[in-house]
UniProtKB/TrEMBL annotation:
Pfam families: Ribosomal_L29. GO terms for biological process: translation. It comes from Neomicrococcus aestuarii. Belongs to the universal ribosomal protein uL29 family. This is Large ribosomal subunit protein uL29. Residues 98-108 have a biased composition (Acidic residues).
Amino acid sequence: MAIGTKDLAVEQLDQFDNARLADELKKAKEELFNLRFQSATGQLDSSGRLKAVKRDIARIYTVLRERELGLRAEVAAPAAEEKAEKKAKKSSKKAEETATDEATEEAK
């Protein structure tokens, strides 16, 4: 995904989990650093790119802050959802086994 483009619209950022947003933020900050360096050395081709990257960083920070305040719904990581489902299944199986073991002991 290119930083500083319409690919980082708020609707697109809403679909990312917090880890992915942090990764995108890191990439955007690195790009901003490189653009500032190019600007200082006179090698910057497009000064508008600085503005676009700064806006992307602001968008990411806004989404993260809104999630922190509960104004925007968080998106769970797909792997985390799968792990949670597996844990729930395991705990329900253990509860069933415990119940059947207790019932068997009571029957004796």
